[in-house]
Request: fold
Amino acid sequence: MRYADDFVVVCPSHVKAEEALTVVSQILAELALSLSSEKTRITTYGKGYTFLGFKMSSRSRRMREKSERKFRDKIRELTTRSYNLEAEVIEKLNQVIRGTAGYFAPRWFTGRSAFRDLDAWVRRRVRCMKFKRYRLHDNRRLRNKDIQRLGLLSLEGFCCPRDTAQATLMSKNVSWTPHGRVHSVQTERKARASSRAGVAGGQQEA
Reply:
């Protein structure tokens, strides 16, 4: 049997994080489980850590590179140039865009610029699919507003306004550490994505 879960334990200091790591290891040992040495580490919120597809730090909370690559791979599968640009393709693209934004764009998300770049890349893929080639001149033949009329959604369109996002980050409901002084241990466990630093590691048993 194999177990794999993600979790983060938040600690006020490096010493407390080491103590938490020891306690977690002992508890898992009693259950005949162990932390994954590859996925478990002590870090600070300033340096950041990856958690459930996100790259979390005191500076930003955005998609990690691996998550972006997975998104691009899905879009590539749907926008092969040998296919015709039909309504069904737009619908399938929207499913991928809606699902990705629905997960990666909570109120505390700070990757709007990354979403904007991905949106531009998706539109370029659509143009290549339409004209069976890639030329900058095609940007004028099929403008952004024309693509929007086709019904294509955008990742950035799911982001909340900048002022709202900032207000949420500074509210009591969201962890915010300007100086990155929260120490943590990182491990893999299924849990709700959190913007705080903490213990994050993986437990597994063959």
